[in-house]
Amino acid sequence: MIGPSGAELIIDRPGSFRIAAHRPHPPGYGEALVLVHTVGVCGSDREILQGTRPEGFVRYPVVPGHEWSGTVVEVGPGVPVSLVGRKVVGEGFRNCGQCDRCRSGETTLCTAGYHETGFTTAGAMATTLTLPARLLHVLADDADLTAAALLEPAACAAAAALKAAVAPGERVAVVGTGALGLLTVQLLAACSPAHLLVVGRHSHFDSLATEFGATRYRISDDLADEGDFDLVVEAAGAPESACTAAGLLRRGGRLVLTGIPAAGAAGLNPTDLVVRQIEIRTVFGAPPAAWAYAVRAFGAGILRPRPLVTHRFQLAEFAAAMDLVRSADPAVGKVLLALPAGSGHHHPHREDTT
Known about the structure:
Elements lengths: L6 E7 L2 E6 L9 E11 L1 H8 L17 E8 L11 E4 L9 H4 L24 E5 L3 E3 L6 H4 L2 H14 L6 E5 L3 H11 L5 E6 L5 H6 L4 E4 L9 E6 L6 H7 L1 E9 L12 H6 L3 E4 L5 H12 L9 E6 L3 H9 L7 E5 L10 E2 L4
Parallel strand pairs: 8-9, 8-11, 9-10, 11-12, 12-13, 14-15
Antiparallel strand pairs: 1-2, 3-4, 3-6, 3-15, 4-5, 5-7, 14-16
């Protein structure tokens, strides 16, 4: 059992956070205790800090952190001891596993209500994390745990890829060049599309999108001659991105929406959708099948999250990390926090993504 040493970050209420001493929560029946290695900082964490996350989707005070990687150090009754020492990532949705939606595999639609690590229960911005062992996905012994911290957004990208059901030779586009969008590009490229367009706001992502499998990169305000795509995945969550994505589709095309825009975003025209017979699918979170898809792709080298990481900080440098996440600098990619405190360097580190 890990001793009472360690630290955790607590957001007590919007605009207020602190670093506190951390005491591990012993795993109960069916649970595992994970020593956290790396945790991602994302827009949802920014919403928690700013107080803009929708009501019912956060419970203060909270230890944030839903994108993470780590190593199992202890298990509770009912969990195989062989799990101890394994590198893992874990699903965030604390689904009931009993309702009709859960039993059909749609765990992100659990009718018992929304309950997620890092939002309504303690997350991974702490030395350890205790969670149901059934939510863990085991990685290879030589897995890169820094890169693995991006497997949560990768699982959401995998959910989009599964709903997209791309056939080889189709014309495909992805709108959005954040972590979600570029991870989606990697997964869709593996499906052998005839053409894979990536749409972003800045030319900064051109080379990275091409490295990940894009055949063309375009700026979002210069798409007049683009269209006739079989599938478009929207992964930006910007006010106009859903409309931009729909405008790229052929008649009868498929649209997968994964971004969550703020209130007041431009809506889709229902008449246009009906007349062009556009099929719409949506993603919110990732069910177990999508997590398994992402973990397999990561293990096979198809999914390469590491180039998306641009900055790493220590837990105590959360404010600086959040400033970067809030910035509009296109050079800022994925921002990570290294745990436990004291591992590695004590200064912000900019990753070399070349």
